[in-house]
Design the sequence.
């Protein structure tokens, strides 16, 4: 009889420990899910920033090209002015 009570108490203790372990595992899984979502959001943000930087780089290249063209046109204008003044 005493052995039965001891075994029942031991089984209850094991059941409680298993329940607590399962609860902790559920929390860990929840935290892992949150971390995965944050990582995904960070990755999307990083990809967005990289896309914007690429677009900005392309715009700067176009701007530099336009400025070179303007510089060339200004040089032509100055050369024409010099020719007119030297006549």
Sequence:
């Amino acid at each position: 009889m005493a052995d039965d009570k001891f075994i029942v108490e031991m089984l209850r203790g094991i059941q409680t420990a298993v329940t607590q372990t399962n609860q902790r595992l559920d929390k860990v899984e929840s935290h892992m899910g949150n971390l995965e979502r944050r990582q995904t959001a960070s990755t999307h943000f990083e990809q967005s920033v990289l896309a914007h930087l690429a677009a900005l780089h392309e715009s700067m290249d176009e701007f530099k090209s336009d400025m070179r063209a303007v510089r060339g046109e200004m040089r032509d204008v100055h050369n024409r002015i010099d020719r007119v003044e030297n006549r």
User: Anything to note?
Assistant: The mean pLDDT is 94. Helices lie at 2-85. DSSP finds one helix and no strands in the chain.
